[in-house]
Amino acid sequence: MVATLYVHAAIFLQSSASTWSLQSMWTSMSTLPRVVVGILFVLSVYSFGVMIDRALMYSAARKQSRVFVQQVAGALKEGKLDEAIAIAERNKKSHIAKVVATGLSEFQSASQQVSDADVIEAAKRGLERSIAIVHAEMKRGLSALATIGSTAPFVGLFGTVVGILNAFKGIETSKATGLSAVAGGIAEALVTTAFGLLVAVPAVWAYNYFTNKVEAFDVEMDNSSMELINYFILRRGARK
């Protein structure tokens, strides 16, 4: 039955293309479908805002990390920890710089207070905390994309159900079974369904794409952390 109504609606929209528009559709909508479309619009704006914010953040992190890695390698090779920390502070958007800066700070602070073995352990704990914090920053907003991607089709489906009910109500009110009696309700159903999918699909794609990005950043931070720990071990061993 629903499929038949969709076919009739498509025929109706095609036959009345000269007079149909989104504005006229919005005007003819009842209150509840308007609320559904409004909710979907807000979800769409929010999801695209998250996408833009994450894209800018990840791009800046990638660019600054490339610069940071090149600059900090020379400073660490010469044993200039203060200079390495200063380089990290100049690249605050780099995920690697944030981790390395925390590790270096913990190493310097612990070196003056505890034994050699405890220095390495303190640096490890500092690096683990830093990685967890940066990971949380990188993932901020992604859960919202996942939620929007999974719920938007159901919000649109709710509008579809309301549109179909309005279509049957039109039949009951007009005491007719022609296309004009159900066209308005079916059109509402088509619009809310399409809008729900239009909101959900980009959100799901973006969530999967950004999740892969975060996983790649996690690998880079873990590798940098291990390399820094090895550097600390070699540095402490060279002093003995």
Main features:
8 helices; 240 residues
What does this protein look like?
- Helices cover 89% and strands 0% of the residues.
- With 240 residues, it is mostly helical.
- It has one domain.
- Helix 4 (81-90) runs antiparallel to helix 5 and helix 5 packs antiparallel against helix 6 (116-139).
- The chain is rod-shaped and about 90 Å long.
- The chain starts with a helix and ends with a helix.
- The relative contact order is 0.15.
Give the SSE layout.
Elements: H1 2-15, H2 22-28, H3 31-77, H4 81-90, H5 95-111, H6 116-139, H7 142-174, H8 179-239
Helix pairs in contact: 1-8, 3-4, 3-7, 3-8, 4-5, 5-6, 5-8, 6-8, 7-8
Mean pLDDT: 81
**Residue share in β-strands:** under 5%
Give the overall shape, derived from the CA principal axes. Answer: rod-shaped
Helix content: over 70%
How many helix segments? Answer: 8
Main beta sheet strand tally, sense and closure: none
Q: Uncertain spans, ≥5 residues at pLDDT below 50? A: 1-10, 15-19
| Domain count | 1
Task: Report how far the terminal alpha carbons are from each other.
Answer: 84 Å
Secondary-structure class: mainly alpha
Per DSSP E runs of 2 or more residues, the count of β-strands stands at 0
Query: Mind telling me the C-alpha Rg?
Result: 29 Å
**Element order: H for helix, E for strand:** HHHHHHHH
How do you describe this structure in short?
With 240 residues, the chain is mainly α. The protein has eight helices and no strands. 89% of the residues lie in helices and 0% in strands.
